[in-house]
## 1
Amino acid sequence: YPSEFLMQKITEDNQIPVHLDVSVSLQYVAGLKGNALVEFFHGNIAEVENEELRHLMWSSVLFYKTPNVEVMACVLLSTKAIYFLLDDSFIHADEHQSDFWSKENSDCENSSFHLSCCFVLKLNDLQSVNVGLFDQYFRITGHSADHIVTCLTRDSYNTHTFIQQLMAVLSLLARTPSPEPVDKDFYSEFGSKNTGKMENYELIHSSRVKFIYPNEEEIGDLAFLVAEKMDGLANLQSLNILLYVLVFQVNCVEGSAQNTSLLQPKTLILTSSDLFLFDEDYISYPLPEFAKEPPKRDKYQLADGRRIRDLDRVLMGYQTYPQALTFVFDDVQNQDLMQNLTLDHFGE
């Protein structure tokens, strides 16, 4: 340890997504290569001597206690824990989280040091991993509200790779075997099945960590919600969700010195007739076992919706991934103008 292949892989993965801003401290981490990166991990992050760095990934993350603050993080997976190396400005981004992060380092603000805070989730504390629709994100759940983190990879390949690496590392953990199942009688075996609700697909790893994947009902619920927004529940049978993808909506701020653009996280859903943007809660659902009450907001909240037939043109940027798309719609005041004219013209 570390092997040549691992060094090369970690160096290749150590790249900040170009569309997201990070602090100087995280830029320093992104500039490390090969041996320097492994030495940095052992010298500054690792908690025990004999743990090995197995995987590195840059991703936006959300914490259960601060569901409205999406922050860039360098996610490091070792044989002992998952480390989230965060921008220090995150601590001051939300005044409601003083209990969540200790502020011991606040006296260093004016020094020449660039601080990062590191959130640690030990693999022994890991209870479940919920994979989001179409592998666009995943949620890691520990034993309390402080230990729930969602990684918004917005990339099925990154999600898949991290889950594979996590399963491999969990296989190395020595955990006490589960107790033998108690023999159930006929009534308890079949009586509990009549809840009328299909559970999500669960894969229970040998380390007893649950990996939970969405089932078809989740897409069905989403289709029902979309149809409701279209005011066309009659069309539910013919409604197909063609695309579900996590995106950023670009809002230009023209008053500033440079015309900066603000990126707002959105969920884009494309059907055969409409294009929708939703504000989605990626961290609160499904409800953790210790949750006493439902979250304050719904999982999906409609931000914008347009008919495809009103789409005039799509402008594509020339840059490589991530691609910028501009959808230009005909701005007709009365959307059903043509339909009404036709009805009037031909009478009954």
## 2
Amino acid sequence: RSEITRNKHLRVSDLRLSDAGIYTCEYGSHTVSISLHVFKLMISSNGYFLPNEIPELTLMQNSSHPLSDLTITLFNSNNNIVRPKLLQNKTRQKYILKLKKLEATDSGTWMCHVHSDSPLINWNISFDVKVLGFQNPDLERKYAAVDSTVILSWSLNFQKIKWKEGFTGQLSWKQQENATTHELLDFNVTARGEQHRTKKGSHFRFEILENKPESTIEVKLPKVHFNHSGQYQCQLAYNGRSVQSKIELVVMKVSANPVGPLPRGAEMTLICQVSSPLPSNAQLRWERVNGTRMDIKKSKQDEVMVEVNVSTAGLWNCHLIEDNDRKISLHYPVEEAPVWISYVVIGASIGGSALAFGLACLCIISGISWQRRRQRAKRMARARQYLLENKTCQCQQ
């Protein structure tokens, strides 16, 4: 592992801790000695991590002189000082440092600065930290209207950080927190960064968008149904560890009861509802176009539905508002029924009332007649009983 160059330099390759010591160069009557102090820096998992993992850094030193008492300063990829926890430093030969939980943004080249006053040492040792994760790691909420098209997207950072290890992943969906999980697709990424996707069975239709960058997972729901709402989770797995990123899909719809044109003098209820509870900073709100403040109805906290009673024709809008920002707006036009329909409705109401009255009268008359027949039968039964007991027959003279 060693060679002498043309300039009479000694080059030692693949330096090891055991190479520490005193090297002497003799030339004629001249002798020059150099003391070689060797440091070895090791990071757990070879520097490949997932978010929230806690790496450990091990710094070892060897020298022919008494080992120095080192001061170690760490700088992350943003050149900010990181203050680790020192776990071991008994013999000055081995220092073990425990870092904080990592985030995907911690990926990059870190610096370990080693300092000693005696002998004087100021040495920088660089090392790489790669954290595989998502560009959007936090829970994201996405709103959609029934029958609309929705695209759900996850951006991975493996190309950005030049991840040189293979890993796998999957996309799954569940309607509620404790509901059954349905797997939508599997994917794997090779050490060369090539991605392969496999669509799994599902009870609703979706499309995998292939014309996107290799570091993006996207699925398209061409026609969203109300029961397509829920949590869509993308998971990455590496060496038995995993990390997830979720998108919560909230679906909104509007309807009316009863459905159809509004007859004159009648009333209908407009219903606006979402598929899951809204956060505290969001609400549903009905508004009548060109209406007044009286034509506004808001949902209360934790409500998934808001209703408004309508007695006149007009255009109504239901807004889903989050932090004063309108996420979705759906309209419902209330149309007035033609006059003849109103007459039909009125006639049907009058006819129905008359029919109900007639049926009530018929029931009363039938009840009275039935009661009279019952009373007559009772009297005849009593008369027969009387005659049988006296065993006489009285004839009229």
## 3
Amino acid sequence: GRLEAVTQQMGYHPQYLDSFLKTQHYLMHMDGPLPFDCRHYIAIMAAARHQCRYLVNLHVLQFLRAGGDPQWLRGLEFIPPKLRNLNEINKILAHRPWLITKEHIEKLLKISEWSWSLAELVHAVVLLAHCHALASFVFGCGCEQDEGLGGRGSLKPLSLGNQCFCEATAGNSYSQELLRINRKRSLDSCMELDSLRERMQRIHVETEGRDEMRLLQQDREEGKGQGAEVGVQGGTEHCCDLSAGLSPLVDTDGEVTSATNLACYMQDPDFGYQDFARRDEDQTQVFRVQDYSWEDHGFSLVNRLYSDIGHLLDEKFRMVDGLQSSAMAKRQGCEPSVFKRGIWNYIHCMFGIRYDDYDYAEVNQLLERMLKVYIKTVTCYPEKTNSEMFDRFWKQFKHSEKVHVNLLILEARMQAELLYALQAITQYMI
């Protein structure tokens, strides 16, 4: 249950990594409105929207460790209606967040046997946005790269030993010296198969779930045309076919026993990003930050309904904004703050969020075409990121600068989803 590849990449910016880990730990493992098994299942649903096997695998294992019902891993048809009802806003937030309305919120909160509380819904929304944005980072930094594939040699995940990411919640939890040494090592582009198996062998299903897991294994073996094994895959690009989205499970002896199709965790798989700019020119549909902003509106609402998460999110937004990027900006011929704002506003613009005080002509001046193509792909449909795009974009950037761009994508995307969701909640409350 580790985010080793992610923490390796974020380790190039240790202060941000510390902030990210605190937020991740709080969302998944600290007191909050949602049960722990539900948190991981929501993360699975969110990651599946982008076919992110890396995150799905991680949260499948943590879901079982949290005592989750193994039957739920058969798909959305096997989970409680309350969780299944979250599918609609998961789909919308992941691909077209501007479509979310107070009616979606009202439908989840209405009085019924399966209704959500406001606090539960805010927790779920933050989880969804967090995992959607993290999927962008995973694909953008090559953490999803299958073992043994070429094309991304400079971005290699790293094992940080036995430390679990969720326990590293303070700056001194990671040795910066260790990070500096380990960054220089040349490792495989994904954890070795044997290493993956060894880690899984240490994770055991609770005693009371053993019979269910055996039955689940038999059901899957009977339902599959042929077996699939977690390991080396052929080819040089990500497989975007949902049927190839394999999520390893563990039997009572800790062995990898079966795989499940990512499609079982989502409905309406054809629903994806649609260019906001192609919509009818209706100015009322443009989200103006002057009318609803994170600082003036979103922060206070989310912090009131889910204690302290607002402070953690705000720290993370500020941390990424404060990262040094002088060399990166110099290559683009501008000031660091101007370059970062150009990337941030370009990402928000793709989701229909506009700043009245910004001249959007700057975007085309600051960001070359391949950079824009890369940012849009990683932001809007990260599962389509391929090695050719990756190689063409990275040429003039140092490793830490590549990670920095992906951190900007992660945080800008997450804030965009939160703004739409929290505005809809605010409108419902009013």
## 4
Amino acid sequence: MTKGGMESVEVFTTEGKGRGLKAQKEFLPGDVIFAEPAYAAVVFDSLVHVICHTCFKRQERLHRCGQCKFAHYCDRTCQRAAWLNHKNECSAIKRHGKAPTENIRLAARILWKIEREGSGLSEGCLVSIDELQNHVDSFGEEEKKELRTDVESFLEFWPPHCQQFGMQFISHIFGVISCNGFTLSDQRGLQAVGVGIFPNLCQANHDCWPNCTVVFNNGNHEAVRSMFHTQMRIELRALNKISPGDELTVSYVDFLNLSEERRKQLKKQYYFDCTCEHCKKQLKDDLMLAVKAGESKPSADTVKEVIQLSKDTLEKINKARMEGHYHEVVKLCRDCLTKQEPVLGDTNIYLLRILSIASEVLSYLQMFEEAADYAKRMVDGYLKIYHPNNAQLGMAVMRAGVTHWHAGLIEAGHGLICKAYAILLITHGPSHPITKDLEVMRVQTEMELRMFQQNEFMYYKMREAALKNQKIQVMPEPSNENAPSLFHKKE
């Protein structure tokens, strides 16, 4: 079954897994299999004043809707593009006296769209909203209680003159949001800023080692034509060669967890047991639990002790980060690494987690040489574990490259930036803001590397003078959030 621009994929049904997507033609790494605009999307409650409600870009100054005073936009183009979806919301917010929570706003936008277009197949959609999984029957007591609260709040907000829907259908919509809400990120792809429903993407099944990745594209603000200026969409991109008839899969969770942990997370959030090859055969688990090789192999008790210490340290680190005590974070990392290094192997996930935090926080504190050493070790471990075209791997390699450049290690910095660029070209594509930034860095570090190879002494002299004349670019403050996960699950 294909429809409106979705000719290259087909929906099929498999035993045990339900619906899935299948390729109709061959794709190569980096190919866009399909792009899909949101059926409906909203900005998170906490960010409504700093994120554009149309394209989900973070902007310094936003225009506010003059009527409801709630919605914010980049410019008139974004505001005009939003009107069809915002019109009913605008008057409902004025009538209600305040804007409801993001879940209620998203449900309302979906139901207003159904009121306008019906609940059948929308243009370009392979399935209708009616057909999406809601998993309401699998909800636990706490989730059922939240669902009842959401439905009650929705009914208070929903205007009496609009089409009235039955309780069962409203519950279905909230179930769909809970299980299929996709995380929207800002233009840098580093912070989750909203949630949207993309019916076609919802058909892609999970695999811990997928052949596709999803990237959120905020549209092109340089484009004059309104359609391209604000055309926010997701893109499903191929990670390796895909043949006609192959199932298209994406990963709902970060791979950098033991197979048992990933399975627990998938069961809790998405109500299925993962049967992918990596989970069944526990592939890469041995690497993620690696201990120091050599003649004096540590005892099982010592390993257990160090892993417990690592878990305790990570909790203390989270607390110190929340409070902005970054020097305390560095001390905790150094102490933990001293205990981990004689015991854990270089791909052990507990070691890698501490190395990642240490390199990020030290970079922020401008202690670049120590940060670069930790970043290099982190990347070496990641390269042995992650899929070679994993977006999170690409971002980690990019961070390590920038850290090396700041430390004046131009050769290693340029090499890492080139490696990151090759990965992100596949996962994000050449026109994504991150890839464009990386291309600028790649060109700059290549030029600096040539200068360094011609005359090392002069290179350092010029670098020193340049850094004196310009304020060193401060690394962004370390985030306490993980990279945005694929699907948004209400906590």
